[in-house]
Amino acid sequence: MSDKIRGVLSPVVTPFDADLQPDTTRWLSHCRWLLSQECGLAIFGTNSEANSLSVAERRMLLETAADAGLDTDRMMPGTGACALPEAVELTRAAVEAGAAGVLMLPPFYYKGVSDDGLFAHFSEVIERVGDARLRLYLYHIPPVAQVPVSLDLIERLLDAYPGTIAGIKDSSGDWSNTKAMLDRFENFDVFPGSEEFLLEGLRHGAAGCISATANVNPGAIHALFETWTAGDADERQAELTRFRKAVAQYPMIPALKAIIGLSTDDPDWGRTRPPLVPLDETQRANLAETLKEFDFTMPGRTAA
Amino acid sequence: MSDKIRGVLSPVVTPFDADLQPDTTRWLSHCRWLLSQECGLAIFGTNSEANSLSVAERRMLLETAADAGLDTDRMMPGTGACALPEAVELTRAAVEAGAAGVLMLPPFYYKGVSDDGLFAHFSEVIERVGDARLRLYLYHIPPVAQVPVSLDLIERLLDAYPGTIAGIKDSSGDWSNTKAMLDRFENFDVFPGSEEFLLEGLRHGAAGCISATANVNPGAIHALFETWTAGDADERQAELTRFRKAVAQYPMIPALKAIIGLSTDDPDWGRTRPPLVPLDETQRANLAETLKEFDFTMPGRTAA
Hints:
With 304 residues, chain A is of the alpha/beta class.
């Protein structure tokens, strides 16, 4: 892990079978397709319904990926948990599987907690895992977790664990926050949480992006990452943003699953675990129309 | 479980040892003292730092209580979890241990979820546990979970599972919401989440209360529950409220632990798991002064 992971990563959506169990066949197939599109695997993210998976299920999927020979150094599993022992267990498992890094939510049950308390949590995880291979990416997603990762907390963690605190996913949706991180920290890789900020991010030193819609549109996002200094970059950014916004008219996670289902003629892909609900028939039909307007395809993505 | 649990319950605070592991000795001692004060055990509540405990730790503590011969039909363990399989596992374990009921948070990671999604979650838990002994108390605590349990959701659940949906803990802190629940539903036991609403609650048919400060002040709260029709009830309610507000000047969970530590000359009781932090020295000294002003004691509460 001497070279830190960069580029476009997808918080891989998790398919479920009729009994609402993780469907490993469909999941591996999606992981493989994403890798074929040069897209890294941020498995167990918000869009993966990771917090709707048990710790045992997340470990089972991680093992499934490793056993299937997926490139674990293109993986950044989410290993955050409200309970310290579970965050330690998941993080250790990811490191031992050879993951490029882990993406870690703060503990998100209690609200209004202090930076001292959050520092203690991350610090305990790092010390208990006790493995020099650990690359920890913080996960700032205040709209969902409601517990922010402040700039001051990042600074304290970087000072205490400079080799381990590797970067952040910023899903605040607030460019001024992303820019503040890019301006303030060194040796700290910032991934905006949406491709909407990819070009602006790269111009200010971002490491790539980790975006929900990379589940379905990874090729075009990766192309911009690769050639962002080209003359037509702004135009391509605008097109990526236009597609993103079109998808975001729908509830994001069910919409991504519906798009995969529509693209592979496999409507069962649309299943979600409660408390999320799949798109209804009208939403699905409207989404199909939206995709047509974009001449949208998932090149090479076949069923299963 | 023909008679539903009533009265005053305490979300039992969880002591930790120097390595931040649950301290079963101190925990059992606290559980036993609460039972001696006629206080029921809402173990694994918000004030128990339950979401900072792993599923394995919660199961271990539940077994410890059962093995120690604690009266499980005075228990209402918290069994909510973001992940359906974990909510099922914890709920099943509680039912099998003979708990009077379970107190269940909605899945709390995703925000703005629909009542359809929450209904599906609770419904799946009930059907997968599949045990007629299950008495499920919903847990409405919007300031922390940020995912509310609406009146309409309660109605749908009561219609679908009338024998199983047993009641609610309302920690909204909003009396009008508590009163709306009391007015609207039958065969549905409402426990306000603070003794501040105990007397008003009982006057409108509440089943008791489940309150943080019952960890330290259970006797006086239970006394009001028992004799709330007496002439001095309003006066005693005012005194309970005055004490509650004095404690609530401090961060509640660390303050409760500090009070137990001060009352048993055992400062190690003050430990919390991250992201919570113990009271600092100044806070502890001020809290000790506050307790003196109230001539506060925990009768019969000895060390360990």
